[in-house]
Each structure stands twice: as C-alpha cells, then as structure tokens.
Predict the structure.
Amino acid sequence: MHWIDLLVLGVYVIILLGLGFYRKKHLVDKTNEYILAGRKLSLPGFVITLVATWYGGILGIGENTYSYGIQTWLIFGLPYYIFAFIFAFFIAGKINQLKSISIPDQFHQRFGKTAGVISALYILIISSPAPYILSIGILLQFAIGIPFGIALIISTAISISYIWAGGFKAIVRTDYYQFSLMFIGFILLLIFSINYTGNFIDTISSLPEKHLNITGGASIQYIFAWFLIGLWTFVDPGFYQRCAAAESPKTAQNGILIAVGIWFVFDMLTLITGLYAKALLSGVEPLFAYPKLGELVLPPLAYGLFITGLLATIMSTIDSLGFINAVTFGRDILWRIQSKSVLKDNGLEQTSIDFIRKGLIVTAFISLSLAFMVPSVVKLWYLIGSIFVPGLVIPFLLSFSRKKYSILPVMICPVVVGLLWTLIGKFLGEYPLNLEPFYPGIMTSLLMYVLKGKNG
C-alpha cells in the first residue's frame, strides 16, 4: 500500500476510537442504558446501525460472487428482504412493546429459566463474531502485511475497548461513521472498475454462463434451503436489540423497511463489483476478490479509502456481535445462574453490567480462538443456519402468544436432528435421503410443536 493509503487507515482508527469513547455526559450505570441506549434510538440511528451491522461477511460475499455470480443475490439478498418485510409488519412493534432486553430474556419471561438459558446458548453460536474477526485478520494481512495473529488481536481489542466504556450508544455512534465509509469504498470501486474497462455490457457479457444464471449451477433444493435459512432474520439478535432499543414501535417498523431499500442498493454495489472481479481477475483466491480488484483499478488514496471501507464494513459487525455475545453470555447466562440480588422495580439490575463486561472478555477470548479454526465464512453461515435456526424460529414466534406450550422439545429436538444429520452426511459423503440438514431440522420442530407444543 502507498503511504497515503496507510495514512487513511491510521486516520480511520483514530476517529473510530474518538467516536467510540466520546460521551456527552456520564453513562448512567443502568442495564437499560448500557444495553439499549435508554430505549431512545431514533429512526436514523436505527437504520444506520442495522444496515452497518449486516455486512460483516463482506469477503464471503465477494468469495461467493466470484465463484457463482448472481446466485449471491438470490441466496443472500432476496430471502432476507422478504423475511425482513414480514418481521417489520408483524414482529418489530411487538418486540418494542414487550420491553425485554434480548431474545433469551423474552424466552426466560415467557417459558422459564431453562428455555432462556438454552436459547442463550443458541444465540451465542449464531451471533459469534469469530468469522468476522477472521476476515479482519485476513484483510489486514493481505493489505498491509500485518502478521495474522497480531491483526486479530488488534481488531478485537479496538472493538472491545469502546464497547466496554460506552455500550450500545458507542456502537451506534461509530456505525454512522462506518456506514459512510462502506458506501464510499464500494462506490469508488464501481466507478473505477467501469472506467478501467470502458464498456459495462461487454465486460458482463464476457462472464461464464454459470455466473449469469440465477442459481449459479446449484440445485433447487440447495437454493431453497438457503432461502429458508433467511428465517434467521426472525431470530437475529441484532434485529431484536435494535427493535427493543427503538423509541417507538413505529420507529422499529419503518426503520426495517428503510433498511431493506438501503440493503438492496449496497447489494447491487457488491454484486456488480464482484462480477467485475470475475471478469478482470483470473487465478485469484475468491476470498480476495474485492481487495484484488481494488488493487488493480484504484489509484492511491482511492485504494486506501476502499480498504478502509472494507475494514469499516467488518468492524461494524464485530463490535455489534461482540456486544450481543457479551450480553448473552454475561447477562442471559451467568447473571441468570449466579445472581442472587433482588430485582429492581423495572426488572433490571445494575450489577448485570458487571457480568456483561466479564462476558466481553470471555467473548473476545473464545472468538479469537475460533478465528484460527473457522472455515469459509459462507460455509459457516450455511452450517450454523441449518442446525440452529430450526430450534429457535418456531419457539420465538410462539413466545408472543399467551398460550401454554411445552417448548423444550420444540427447541432441542430440531437441533439434535440437524446436528446428527450433518455428522452423518460428513461421514457418508452425502446427506441421508439427499436432504440438506435444514429440512429435517425444521420438520422436527413442526412435529414437536404438533405433538408436544400444543398440548402444553
């Protein structure tokens, strides 16, 4: 990287830390304030932080687009728009009115302590920042030659430092900044890519036929499994946290609808530049599609802004998921199990912040350890979604009802079946009955609901 590009990176880190630690007034030491910004999140803040948090796997998006073309939008874009619309109209406002802190908190209040702890364990897995910390390490090693392990530690330490001090408010402040950089970076990449080739139509036409096929050569069953994994939206802890923090049910609903429109714009930026990477680059590691394209078409300063935009895209997810993991481990598990204190009149405890900060340390350690073992980000999304989403979706939807349910079989059995199905598939070389593991998992969940859930 040119020294100007390195300077851009340095300025980014300084401003990020400044925004993260800045506070207009002393943080009120209350759980409600620390986790949900006092439930006063405005519409602009809601949209910005929701959009910025969604794209931490940006290198994985480039990897899939370089390998399979426009299929990426079909499996990572369209399903999430559809389920986000459903979430906005039927769930977002209810979350805001319930006044729960998190998904495990809602499970605890609705189904009891055991269901709350089990749901917290599931959330710990689906919201782990490990794959995104891995992405940061890979990107910094590629861009500026920092040793992989040091890059992991630095990025994790930066995120944890301002979360420790400012909680959710610090995340929202830094997301305004990182949201701007992620769009600036990809707009620059698109403009310079078009200028580099001079003819958009000819460039796209030169792509392999598979890359212009909506399925990318994959089976309909595989595509549909990805589509159903979009149900992840319903149990995404980032969605829940922001809906709970919104200043009103209308803010939560409108914020998601606006976010979907912005997601579409950013998806088009990443899709088109990913196709350019395939057209202009050959023999590169797919994970490096975006950085390699930037290296080819961008001059100094623009390249620095693009790499910074990639970093901001990933960092905005690391801090948010790191904080959610800390809340889940510290408050929804440790605090639930260990704390003997008397609840305050609003159902919250100041002491739970201490547990959350302990959770930050544990989360950082576990995530750093996992980052050295995580495979392809895309494969990890598919594996986690296939196994754990079926165990959460139906129980989560039932938690809004007042009826009595025997919920534990609906939570546990689908995950056990999905896990066994996956292990058998790995052992045999193909899944039983040629079914992707999501299908037996969600069918087990429905079966347990019919047999056990309805009976209470």
About this structure: Residues 3-377 form a domain with the Sodium/glucose cotransporter fold (CATH 1.20.1730.10).
